[in-house]
Fold UDP-N-acetylmuramoyl-L-alanyl-D-glutamate--L-lysine ligase.
Amino acid sequence: MSLGINEIKIILSEHNLLKKIVIGDHDTFHDVTYDSRNVKKNALFFCKGNFKTQYLSMAKDSGASGYVSEKQYDEGNGLTQIIVTDVQKAMSIIGAAFYGYPENNLFIIAYTGTKGKTTSSYFAKSILDYTTNKKTALLSTIDTILGNQSDQKFKSHLTTPESLDIFKYMKTAVDNGMTHMVMEVSSQAYKKNRVYGLKYNIGLFLNISPDHIGPNEHPTFADYLHCKEQLLVNSDTCIINADTDHFSDVYNAAKATTEPENIYLFSDHDKKLLDNRHPDFIFDSVADTINDNKIKLLPNNEKVAKMNLSGEYRIAVAGDYNESNATSAIIATALAGADAQDVKNGLEKVFVPGRMESYNANQNGFVYVDYAHNYASMHALLSFLKKGNPNGKVIVVVGSPGNKGEDRRKGFGMALTENADEAFLTTDDPAFENPEDIIEEIDSYIDHSKVDVHVQLDRRMAIKQAILSGNSNSIIVIAGKGRDPYQKINGVDTPYETDSVVVKNVLKGLENE
Ligand SMILES: CC(=O)N[C@H]1[C@@H](OP(=O)(O)OP(=O)(O)OC[C@H]2O[C@@H](n3ccc(=O)[nH]c3=O)[C@H](O)[C@@H]2O)O[C@H](CO)[C@@H](O)[C@@H]1O[C@H](C)C(=O)N[C@@H](C)C(=O)N[C@H](CCC(=O)O)C(=O)O
Ligand SMILES: Nc1ncnc2c1ncn2[C@@H]1O[C@H](COP(=O)(O)OP(=O)(O)OP(=O)(O)O)[C@@H](O)[C@H]1O
């Protein structure tokens, strides 16, 4: 693969990004990278983010022959220097060109929303695996799956990767024979222009509630919503949860670039629809107990009746909120070619790592490992579990991260007060904060007349104590980390075997006692 300066000049000019080019010894590049530690000979190096000039010197020493930057640097003398108005945007369009526009060879389903992106993406992939005979790639918060061999699947670093990685992954997926891709698109991906210029066949908007607002993410809720809406602006076909907050705003964003005929709305039968929303599909809960989750899908007009999706679908993952996640996946995958049987198979067989993973602890109750890590998700999770288990205790192990999402602490306090009986407050990615201070803050929002609170800094120990405190009617929730394999402590990702493994070890220990 290679990319010449003339093509770069054309695409940057087309996007009005080019400020200046100084041609150096080489004007054709054989690799693209934003990390000086990975520079190959004749690479084009991008100076972005918290960049330091020594990275450019390092890149030059390692054989880079050009760089792209918003500023010209003496350290880059002798290299081809491409000076642009926005390096993140430039990186995305150059990345697409370098990898030969692999997105054109994939049917792309893209998800956004505050909650449910990962779960719904796994639902959609599971269904499409039947339709495409396992030729569906996945870019998710948990795993990146670019093929069916073991080395074509790995843990993701970000929900939505950097643009160069996205196009590289897409090219790899195409080379591996993949025809479809399901991807999560975070609001940060738009904020940082990681997906600049990328178009999706189908874009889905699940829901929005305040999250990711702070000095390092979005300055305001309006900015957060705006970034999320960009996914719809860049999609040929849009699917929107008609029950979402800020529906009118969201619908108008979709309508800006998509004809109403290509916008599909769905709604929960039990939710009262506001304004004049006319959902195309309505889902109705047939079973939403802890052991059985099933919906009935009802087409609501002629446009969608011909999709032949009317019927009942069992969902392998518990949680009433997963009914709307599943509905979104049904509509998206049907538009991508799935039939009702693929949908049935996919939803019945799906497994989502770290999301409502259940373990039978016998005389100690039932354990769920779940990723709920803010008020909206914790409230959705605990109210569902409490409703399904009115006579048993709901026991929750939870902590809150340091140096980010500080409002989550109050959210956890509130959600625990509303639906938990017992809480074990513990450590979860304390970063540079003292975990005891974080716990104290969560605790200050808990009503102690309703919740029995224990403090146990050691997360493994907290899980063990919570399980031991249960009886056969109890539900024990290990919340917030899912399958995160580390604790972020003082800037270091300290390895952690994951909540799922800790639970399994505790249960094994109990069996052997
Ligand atoms: C805010 C943001 O987008 N930050 C991301 C961004 O940071 P950055 O560009 O400032 O990079 P940096 O790590 O500070 O380094 C600066 C540059 O120098 C380079 N470098 C660095 C060291 C070196 O020796 N040589 C070198 O060339 C780096 O490769 C980088 O290009 O690029 C880095 C990788 O290139 C990411 O790791 C980092 O993600 C941060 C850590 C992160 O986790 N961000 C979160 C907020 C995020 O994006 N989350 C969303 C999900 C949340 C949601 O649902 O909205 C996500 O999509 O994951
Ligand atoms: N539609 C939903 N509404 C509310 N809560 C949900 C919904 N779907 C999932 N959840 C809860 O939120 C948690 C996170 O779900 P998931 O990972 O699918 O969402 P996400 O959008 O990828 O989240 P994040 O951006 O935080 O990674 C789940 O473990 C569950 O507790």
Remarks:
- The chain is about 35% helix and 25% strand.
- The CA atoms of residues 131 and 338 lie 5 Å apart.
